[in-house]
């Protein structure tokens, strides 16, 4: 098995916000499982791509969802002309050959799926494949990273306590204004004056959290708005399409947000 397809050749741009790079390196050095915790669109996925590149490890990413089963992660027998053949799932591939496995939005998966990672996250570092009659000892380069958005938490959708307690957590939140503006300018390819305006809009929207907005505008949304401007749209249209409309269906909240946007643009 060749993991070349999972190697990241070019450095993914990542602007550090705190000590997250050192923390991840320390955790990886000891192969401690890591949980990236924070709201959507604040750089978790970009960070893990950057870290895989920095550490020179292949990265296998799995977007978790409700219908995902343990077999989707671990593997299954499939019919082929030669009979039934075992196929490793993405988690097994990472464990066997030594990649970083990133389970994105882990709470989306059912708890009976998530428990397959337990034996990998304690001192044993093994993956039992019951159906294949095999217990794999994890490759020395293997490490597990998950992402988790505490905002989506509900009684039905949360990590088991016994799962949570296996990870060291790195907290992500929206960066400070000047750092976020530098990210928006670079990622959207816009000049810094416009990036400053977009970041100010982001800050205002985040102040509306809890007053009818579940989450404020993410860094990702600000970048989208910047890209629309770069593509020739007026800033009013760009911010409406990239921020105001996607974030809420509530007419009053849209009006409040539009007011905040107008104040920032003026
Ligand atoms: N610290 C950062 N450095 C570089 N880019 C960032 C950073 N934070 C956010 N971004 C930008 O925001 C976008 C969304 O981030 P992403 O990692 O996909 O968010 P998450 O996985 O937390 O939902 C990225 O594609 C990237 O353009
Ligand atoms: Mg992500």
Automatic annotation (TrEMBL):
Domain ATPase dynein-related AAA: 33-167
Keywords from the named record: ATP-binding, Nucleotide-binding
Top-level division of the source organism's lineage: Bacteria
Gene3D superfamilies in the cross-refs: P-loop containing nucleotide triphosphate hydrolases (3.40.50.300)
Signal sequence extent: none
Domain CbbQ/NirQ/NorQ C-terminal: 180-263
Keyword Membrane in annotation: no
Keyword Ubl conjugation part of the UniProt annotation: no
PANTHER family (UniProt xref): DENITRIFICATION REGULATORY PROTEIN NIRQ, MOXR FAMILY PROTEIN
Family assignment from sequence similarity: Belongs to the CbbQ/NirQ/NorQ/GpvN family.
Protein name (database record): CbbQ/NirQ/NorQ/GpvN family protein
